[in-house]
Design a protein that fits this description.
With about 180 residues, the chain is an alpha/beta fold. It contains seven helices and five strands, in the order βαβααβαβααβα. The protein has one domain: 3-Layer(aba) Sandwich (Rossmann fold), CATH 3.40.50.
Length: about 180
């Protein structure tokens, strides 16, 4: 990885991909793109409505198309949707076209961050914390498998997290120079 190439952030909802991604992009002077926001922009509606009309399979198809286009571009920090790693084709694209960073957080930390958010179709359940635990169990190995770096988000501030990530990226750039 060289400075200026793509950085892809993966992880469950609430891990900080969008918030950290924006800050990281600013510090690296790269474009920031959020794949979920891009899907909403293209469709003209929010993701929960896409899920309601097209189901998860329809949404995942849209997501794969957007990721194919976005990963073909250079010089961006991309915050991916939490389920983007579910499709093998998405994992292959991410791994081949940039540095993948897994922002890891415990289900309990994620719950504290997102339990109030009504725009999360996968949490529209009687027990959102149990659902987050299921998602974590299903996806953690996929995130780890595609990631070049794993950063534990824990309770640190966004600034501290972005600083830690930047330091680890700089180490990778020096090692590959």
């Amino acid at each position: 990885m060289k400075r200026g190439e793509n950085i892809y952030l993966v992880g469950l909802m609430g891990a900080g991909k969008t918030t950290v991604g924006r800050l990281l992009a600013r510090r690296l002077k790269l474009r920031f793109v959020d794949s979920d926001q891009e899907i909403e922009r293209r469709c003209g509606v929010k993701i929960p409505l896409i899920w309601e009309i097209e189901g998860e399979a329809g949404f995942r198809g849209r997501e794969a198309q957007v990721l194919a286009e976005l990963t073909a571009q250079d010089g961006a920090v991309l915050a991916t949707g939490g389920g983007s790693v579910l499709l093998d084709e998405n994992r292959k694209r991410l791994a081949a076209r940039g540095t993948v960073v897994y922002l890891r957080a415990s289900p309990e930390d994620l719950y504290r961050r997102v339990h109030y958010d009504r725009d999360r179709p996968l949490l529209a359940t009687g027990d959102p914390l149990a659902r987050l635990r299921e998602l974590y169990a299903e996806r953690d190995s996929l995130y780890r498998g595609v990631a070049d770096l794993v950063i534990d988000t824990g309770a640190q501030s966004v600034q501290a997290l972005a600083r830690e990530l930047l330091e680890k990226l700089e180490e990778r750039w020096k090692a590959s120079a």
